[in-house]
Amino acid sequence: MRDAFIALLSMCSAALGIFTLRDYQVRALRRLAEVLSSGALAPLLSAPTGSGKTSVAAAIVSCAREAGLRVLFIAHRRELIN
Length: 82
Prior knowledge:
By secondary structure, the chain is mainly alpha-helical. The chain has helices at about 1-10, 25-35, 55-65, 80, and strands spanning about 15, 20. The chain has a two-stranded antiparallel ribbon. Helix 1 packs antiparallel against helix 2 (about 25-35), helix 1 crosses helix 3 (about 55-65) and helix 2 (about 25-35) packs across helix 3 (about 55-65). It is globular and about 35 Å long. The chain starts with a helix and ends with a helix. The mean pLDDT is about 85.
């Protein structure tokens, strides 16, 4: 399942459901897939304020679910969840 998830991330489309990722977000997801493929177990993906980190997280969750993985998304603020 991990390999399927990495494959989905590396082929991530700019359009995921109801939102569209920007080019730099798609590049970040593809780079994340490369790092995971190299054997990294807990990579960190960071981005500046306003860059769409929540959209990127939603894309990661979507790819994981499509690969048949269970997902737990935790946020410390209700605003992020809503």
